[in-house]
Write a structure and sequence with these properties.
single chain, 273 residues, mainly alpha, two-stranded antiparallel ribbon, globular, binds fe (iii) ion
Length: 273
């Protein structure tokens, strides 16, 4: 990493080297992410967390994610572990005293474990990519918005108005989002009683909601609580996006440091997933 410039354009959804893979991912995502699908996934997840019968340490989960390359990412095709350490270390370089933000850098994408759960092994279209509200009109600011044409909810009058099933400014905690790693890992953090601050929880839950934090859409559903934490999401996003480099960080040397942070913000080593 260091100070060298990296000649690369981020979030190119038109003609990146990965365009075919990314476009296919969003075609499936936009076609299949319906309100019913989201409610069903939330139910499966809540039931498993309540049973508490699938346990892993964060490092065991990290090892699993070392085998995953995110098909929604036009920028890089490195394993998720590389992205986790690059984000965390980029944050540490700029915010050396902000331990919770560094740890969020390392863990923010751990929800991609959804690709590996025994009873909820989802395909990538239900795990990765930008998120958006379901149960109301799909905004044109969503990437590949043209792919919503075949989503059954698009044809449902009740789900296709500006507010849909929601009240004005009800707040995003009361909105159902396309299912994926943001919502899932937020639920894991809450269920396992992580002591990460509210800023961290909002970053995890809404970091893929680009139509809002990057394009200013869906302001008619946000509330004071969402606005309060937006600046932290934007601060985090710089590192999530601009730390992507082909070079690998020396990950082994960093494990001890981040293990210390995990011990600070989680009451147990083993988490329920
Ligand atoms: Fe993410
Ligand atoms: Fe990320």
């Amino acid at each position: 990493m260091g100070g060298q410039t990296y000649d690369h354009e981020y979030r190119n959804y038109v003609d990146s080297e990965r365009q075919q893979t990314v476009s296919k991912l969003y075609y499936l995502n936009h076609t299949k992410q319906t309100l019913d699908f989201v409610l069903e996934q939330k139910r499966i997840c809540a039931a498993r967390l309540a049973r508490g019968d699938y346990k892993l340490t964060l490092w065991e989960a990290m090892k699993q994610l070392d085998t995953l390359v995110d098909d929604s990412d036009p920028d890089i095709d490195a394993a998720q572990t590389v992205h986790a350490f690059q984000t965390a270390e980029a944050i540490r370089a700029v915010h050396p005293d902000n331990e919770w933000l560094q740890l969020v850098g390392l863990l923010h994408d751990m929800g991609k474990m959804l690709c590996f759960l025994p009873d909820q092994k989802l395909e990538q279209w239900a795990v990765v990519g930008d998120t958006f509200p379901v149960g109301c009109k799909h905004d044109s600011a969503i990437v590949f918005a043209e792919h919503f044409a075949e989503n059954p909810d698009t044809k449902d009058q009740k789900l296709n108005s500006e507010y849909g099933i929601y009240e004005p400014n009800c707040g995003f905690d009361n909105v159902h989002f396309s299912y994926g790693h943001d919502e899932y890992f937020y639920q894991v953090l809450v269920h396992n009683k992580s002591t990460l601050p509210q800023e961290a929880l909002n970053i995890v839950r809404y970091h893929s909601f680009y139509p809002w934090h990057n394009k200013g859409a869906y302001k008619h559903l946000e509330n004071e609580h969402d606005r309060k934490y937006l600046d932290w999401i934007l601060e985090f996003n710089k590192f999530d996006l601009y730390s992507k480099r082909p070079e690998l960080p020396a990950m082994e040397e960093l494990v001890a440091y981040y293990d210390g942070l995990m011990n600070k913000y989680f009451p147990t080593k083993e988490l329920m997933w």
